[in-house]
Amino acid sequence: MEKLIFANANDRELNFKDKIFSVAAKYDEAVKAGNKDAVNATIGALIDDSGKLVVFQSVVDCLKNLAPEDYARYAPISGIPAYIEVAQKLAFGSHKPDMYTAACYTPGGTGALRLFVSNYTKIGDSVITSDWYWANYKSICTELQRSLTTYPLVDKDGKYNVAGLEEKVAEALKTQDTLGIIINTPAHNPTGFSLTGEDWDKVLEMIRRKAPAESGKKITILVDAAYIDYTGDPDAERAFVKKFEKNPDNILCLMAYSASKAFTMYGMRCGALVCMTNNKDICVEFENVARFSARATWSNGVRAAQTVVANMYNDPKLREKLEAEREASNKMLLRRGKVFEEAAKKCGLVTVPFDAGFFIAIPCDDPDAVCELIFKRGLFPVPLAKGIRVALSAVNEEQCKWIPGVIKECMDEYYGK
Ligand SMILES: Cc1ncc(COP(=O)(O)O)c(C=O)c1O
Known about the structure:
By secondary structure, the chain is an alpha/beta fold. Helices cover 44% and strands 15% of the residues. The protein has a domain at 67-317: Type I PLP-dependent aspartate aminotransferase-like (Major domain) (Aspartate Aminotransferase, domain 2, 3-Layer(aba) Sandwich), CATH 3.40.640. The relative contact order is 0.17.
């Protein structure tokens, strides 16, 4: 718990240390000390094979063509109408569910997560996610006076652990009549794990069984789809949203859509919270509560970012250019993942089952100590609670051949093998 001088904790368990930035600082020190070959495996943004940040030229061109009005004027609180429409098209791909749907602009996926926690869980509630999770989930829950409860992401066979989720759902429903669940899929951060269609069937069957309509329980599932466009078949990966069509009114599914990675617009802060329900009133209520929270948190969103996303989607030529650039980056990333997996297999390094995305993770019970050994070898991955995270987004293919061996050797050294 951090000690405060003047500010108020207000029951929040404040933690000011950021693991990722502290490892990145160590990398900078190593470079300053003369290690030209040091490898920064912390960055959650796409870096090309020559070490430069990938910025899609089509996005740059679209941005440069904006009229002054496009960035100077306030945007409506929920987002400009063209963006609200396009955000849903981007979220659903060719799988738009036959349900009432709505969306609210948010500054990135982060804003969407915040809207979800503040409106669909109660103060004091525990929100459920898997034990490997993006650290900001905890910060958002803490900030909003909720807690985060976790279950093991995979079972002993390396499959999605629906039974583990069920156990936590049952526990929470003993004391809570509302429950929020965050599922980060596909290409989960920090593991690259994805739920299959069958996993989704099991999750939804379990939730409907645990919270039958007559139980009075309300469950909201937030699908964090931040990395959905960096998968083997991004449109096919969206098929799971059709499964929500069978949801009764007491089960609400929301999606946090983010343009950060999909448009290489990390700093432009553009995302959306997307609602899918079979009940018209719940959909209208979503629009109202999202707008209220947005007004009270960031107020108007980034008009330029929304305009770029809407214009790019609606202009076939721009869209084609964007999709070609994204596909090239995606292929680069998928290749890195494949090369990493092959090298890991060769040297006997065990990873959490990886499907796609920006990150791959190695389970380890003393990640801080093992990472100290790894840092000495000039490699800088991130030690997390459950293991070590390597950002495939930040390292090139050659480095992907080398990294697993280094990690394995350091683990063997630490565990005395
Ligand atoms: C799992 C996950 N969800 C959501 C986000 C949100 O990103 P942004 O707010 O930049 O869209 C990130 C960003 O790193 C992430 O890793």
